[in-house]
Design a protein that fits this description.
The complex is a heterodimer of chains A (766) and B (230). Chain A is 34% helix and 24% strand. Chain A has 766 residues and is α+β, with helices and mostly antiparallel strands. In chain A, helix 18 (491-509) packs parallel to helix 19 and helix 19 crosses helix 21. Residues 1-13 of chain A have low confidence and may be disordered. By secondary structure, chain B is of the alpha/beta class. The longest helix of chain B is centred in the first third of the chain and has 12 residues, at 15-26. In chain B, the strands form two sheets. A nine-stranded mixed sheet of chain B has the order 2-1-3-4-11-10-9-6-7, sandwiched between helices. In chain B, strands 5-8 form a two-stranded antiparallel sheet. In chain B, strand 1, helix 1 (15-26) and strand 2 form a beta-alpha-beta unit. Chain B is globular, with a radius of gyration of 16 Å. Chain B starts with a strand and ends in a 5-residue tail after the last helix. The chains are: A alpha+beta (766), B alpha/beta (230). At the A-B interface, helix 7 and helix 9 of A face helix 1 and strand 6 of B.
Chain lengths: 766, 230
Amino acid sequence: MSGPPALPPLTPDGAWPDAPAGAVPSGVVADRSRAGTFGLTPEEFDQVVAHLGRLPVAVEAAMFGALWSEHCGYKNSRPLLRRLPTEGPQVLQGPGENAGVVDVGDGWGVAFKMESHNHPSAVEPVQGAATGVGGILRDIFAMGARPFAVLDALRFGDLASARTRYLLHGVVEGIAGYGNAIGVPTVGGEIAFHPSYQENPLVNVMALGLLRHEDLQSGTVGAVGHVLLYVGAKTGRDGLGGAVFASADLSAASDADRPAVQVGDPFLEKLLLEACLEAIQSGLVAGVQDMGAAGLTSSVGEMAHRAGLGVDLDLGRVPRRERGMTPLEVMLSESQERMVLTAVPGREDELIALLRRWELDAVPVGVVRDHGRLRLFENGELVADLPVGPLNDAPTYVREGREDPAVTAARERVLDDLEPPADAGAALLELLADPTIASKRAVYRRYDHQVMTNTVVLPGAADAAVLRLKGSDRAVGATVDCNARYVGLAPRHGAALAVVEAARNLAAVGATPLGVTDNLNFGNPTVPEVYHQMSEAVEGIREACLALRTPVTGGNVSLYNQYRADEGVRAVLPTPTIGMVGVLPDVHRRATMALARDGDALLLLGDGAPSLGASSYLARVHALEAGAPPALELAAAERLVTTLAGLVQAGLVDTAHDVGDGGLAVALAEMAIAGERGLDAELPAGLAARADAALFGEAAHLALVAVPEEVVDAVSAVAEAAGVPCRRIGRAGGERLALRAGDLWIDLALADARDAYERTIAEALA
Amino acid sequence: MAHLAVLRFPGSNCDDDARYALERVTGADVRFVWHADGDLGGAGGVLVPGGFSYGDYLRSGALAAQSPVMHAVRAFAERGGPVLGICNGFQVLTEAGLLPGALARNEGLAFVCRTVTVEVQRDDHPLLAGLRRGQRLRLPVAHHDGRFVADEATLDALEAEGRVVLRYLPASEPDGNPNGAMRDIAGIASGRGNVLGMMPHPERAAEAILGGEDGVPLLRAFARASGVAA
């Protein structure tokens, strides 16, 4: 191999610029009356003045504004998030680092986190989604983990509208373009449609990475005298102010914010990924941090804060793409594909040589000091001097919350007067063609879901993705879930149901749930009706995570997801997306939803009557979003999850499917379509209050399994012993989908069901 | 015993997968060769893996074809050394002039990741040893630029010389031609038969747990042609 390029000598420590303590930075002093231009309220501006003991210069005010934005500082959500459980024996890293990490056994850990890129995707869907993937992948390899899977939770408006098709095309293209090129498989996710997302789509991306326990990294500056390296892409004016942009309402004028959207380069990120992991594994790195929202400001600020130390940054050394950039622009640029690395002392040259072999810019830009401040120098001159603590400790707000009376009324609406469907088969076809329920095959075929050769359950085949761990018998399951209609009608209950659904989905592939990352997407927190949703949803997540023993190890909050139109402000449905990771002890014992054998007995596991409240059936067939979501008993949900995962792990069950959107009829149809074989089933009398609720009603703790006749007794015995009812409802086989409940019956050719299920999204993407 | 080389360009992303599968199914010693290297380290065979070499911002494979290691690969191929290009590797080999034709943007203009059925077209080819003419293989594809194109004369010559080695089923069949490739071509070989390029990924179909093992004979044939007992 040819030698590395000659390096400029590292600047000796003594040659770093310096200034006496208390020196006043040069630059234009910021004015309180213009606090808003820095993303601060006048009161927050006063707090900045108090922290500094003087008026801030513009760059200082802007840095406070960025780190105190909702996106970076969580000022409206932190008091709520403190309520979430974060601990458990499986947690190797809880919240506060680039990503959480759980132990999956055999010395392996899985780093995982979900993050939103909603606002950028609304304005420029391709790059908005692409950089969403790029950003979350950097969070993962900053932990020392090799990214090995991506899942997406996407929300759009009316699929029939040109805007939604434009956004769907763009977001899918962006995810595909970035993920495929960098070579991390996109293995799962969910896509739902609702008019509230028409102007403000949601793009939540979850990434998973694999690491050996001993390679776990921290985003820290290390110790005094350590040198910080700037690594990766040059800094430009792109993405300027993105953190503030992401913390404001969208409006028609947002298109003028396109410069706040960054452009992704997956090729450069691939180099960054390989270089960082090689450097970490070579023992050359003392700390590592992604430059995400608010760029250098947040990365260096957070690293210094974690170590309780200070940093002097020499801005003249920062590689730049454009001439004439001001310190403010350099510090707040959100140019993609950049990292900060702390070198292990004495090995700086080795680290730089390694990074440059990957053709990356790698420049010493800062040095760690004990002054607890973030000081910026340009041309030897002090241009900013901020206390690290307050910079990273945004003021928090506990707001007033109250439920919108219209929501209360909708939830409490009595549904007894609903006409039963004239033709249950037609209703099922309509549900299968509903864009939220319909097959997403046309989407995931655009994603490379097999690169890295670990994907043992392909997208669409099961309720969760399953990835094997090479060199181990273990496998990892992952899913993202949220039924926002439930959350909209009953925030606490609905958010708990999202956690329970994620756990049920993992159990249905045979994974034991381990941990959660949440992506809380809401409207404007200063609106009491929105704050109520946030506060209640966090409480629901807390309760469910405690019951399921799945601590929350990290996540993301995205607020101001609303659109200001002439007719008023419209917030998105409250959407606390739950990403959950689990472990399968033996990769050979896993399940998919596909009916595998003619003659298999269909068993219904769990309890709780399916009900029509908040259901897809009600929304689709009766155009009604009302009623209470399915009754949830957390102990029953936990029993079902543990029992179902146990049945798969014991090798008794290889076909399982959660009962979710569209109820038992849709769940059974999906099993038949996936397995390319029909079924014949009769739902137990008394299962639900009415026959249409038995077929299409939704439930919190029901699942279906299909097993050969000779295993029925064993499965039943295990379930009953665990207190989980197990009822036989039918048999797999044939070419028809035959289903009866009371006086309603469905009898469809399997081919017709498949056609309805496959057509909607394929046509939208064609 | 000879070892196998897997090339590594900045942006390759199926390099690890190729090495893992080759080691697993052939027991071979597999070593990576960096794009900036001028020699192949005495390898008995060279695999050019899939991915997005140099980001493929120009044309897929165009920059990789100009890299130092490709000079060594060209000389190796001229001496009759076996070279297998998969996906982006196939694109690199056509860009480097080691194979004719080109891989153009898929007919549907979108990336496609799915399993297709290909039919083996030869039963006496060194890089297809152990496979029979007419044998059908289920192999994953994952590409944006996989539509094989060439002028009519080149296509006729490839057919006449028996150099079309893998063909998709027609697009009208289930899991047929996924990209609009001319004459359903999925893989071709050089005139001497020692260079072979294919769009499908045999390394993704080399274990039952991944859904199939139809890629195994292709990897074994490559190893054997490279002097590795497999």
